[in-house]
Amino acid sequence: MDDMISFDFTLDNILSVKAPRDTDPDTLHEAVRDKLITLIQGKHECFMFEGTFEEDSND
Questions:
Q1: Backbone angles phi, psi at 11, to 5 degrees
Q2: pTM summary value
Q3: How many whole angstroms separate alpha carbon 27 and alpha carbon 36?
Q4: Distance from C-alpha of 12 to C-alpha of 14, rounded to nearest angstrom
Q5: What share of the chain is helix, strand, coil (3-state, %, to 5)?
Q6: Closest Cα to residue 4, out of 51, 48, 58, 53?
Q7: Where exactly are the structural domains of the chain?
């Protein structure tokens, strides 16, 4: 029997990128991803524990 469960976390940070006022937000994903990478590399991310999940073993 496997004694492993899943621990669920969410990332609790707001990422802000500069762009012209009329920019489509869907075009900013790469800039936001780069900002997130920088945040994580600097160890400034904030993970919030949400709970645990156990798979049903009655299958």
A1: -95, 120
A2: 0.68
A3: 16
A4: 7
A5: 30, 20, 50
A6: 53
A7: 6-18+25-53
* Structure token digits, residue 10: 């969410």
pLDDT score, position 1 = 53
Count of other CB atoms within 10 angstroms of residue 9: 11
DSSP designation for 42: T
DSSP annotation of 11: E
pLDDT tier at 58 (50, 70, 90 boundaries)? low
Output the CA torsion sign for 23, 32, 48, 39: negative
Which amino acid is located at 41 in the chain?
Q
Alpha helices in 1-59 (DSSP H): 29-41
Cα–Cα distance measured from residue 52 to residue 2, given in angstroms and rounded to the nearest whole number: 15
